[in-house]
Design brief:
With 202 residues, the chain is an all-alpha fold. It has helices spanning 7-28, 37-49, 56-86, 96-109, 113-116, 123-133, 138-163, 167-171, 173-201. The chain has one domain.
């Protein structure tokens, strides 16, 4: 958790505008899948509890806006250039398996994917493009994007804020941020196990 992607470093360096930009990139731009959205929200809540960053109501108002705006950009990228995006060769930042994983998730969960994917790293980046490429009804997509955006940003930020009022948590911020990262990877691990089981059956 050290270095440029350390959530505390990002927040202290770029502030609220930086948090919003990272959420926007992670949920709307294909290159943003590696950004630490979950741990960033949790850390922001912790720091707000300590009197830093900004008032809680400001975060709860602006962070969902950034997340939903990112989803809308991702949708239109998929709608306008879906096949070209998905047919790209593998590179350091793009892997075909990311698309496959997101497509499987989308096929199984349908419109609920737009809400559920918010809580799944990597999938939340590519599911938005997948929705646009599949020509999902925009009004329906917008509704689920708003629900998911509010639930994700507000839920994780409030979790950090409430826990940040506990002295033990404040004294061991890095440990709890690592815990959030670990929890966010659980759905990815489950998805990988399911994929291997399906491949074995095939």
């Amino acid at each position: 958790m050290t270095g440029f992607l350390d959530p505390t470093h990002l927040i202290n360096t770029f502030g609220l505008i930086g948090i919003m930009a990272i959420l926007f990139a992670e949920t709307g731009l294909l290159v943003g899948f590696f950004l630490p959205g979950d741990s960033l929200l949790f850390t922001a809540g912790l720091l707000v509890a300590g009197g830093l960053v900004a008032p809680l109501w400001v975060l709860l108002l602006l962070l969902p806006v950034a997340a939903v705006a990112g989803n809308l950009v991702g949708y239109w990228i998929g709608r306008k250039a879906g096949p070209a995006v998905f047919d790209r060769p593998d590179s350091r930042l793009f892997k075909a398996e990311y698309v496959t994983r997101s497509r499987d998730f989308f096929d199984r969960n349908g419109a609920r994917t737009i809400v559920l994917a918010r809580f799944v790293p990597v999938v939340r980046t590519f599911a938005t493009v997948m929705a646009g490429a599949s020509r999902m009804d925009f009004r329906r997509y917008l509704l689920f994007s708003v629900i998911g955006g509010v639930a994700w940003t507000a839920g994780v930020t409030l979790m950090g804020f409430w826990l940040g009022q506990i002295a033990f948590v404040r004294d061991h911020v890095e440990l709890f941020v690592l815990g959030v990262v670990a929890l966010s990877l659980v759905p990815v691990a489950l998805e990988a196990v399911r994929g291997r089981r399906r491949s074995s059956r095939a």
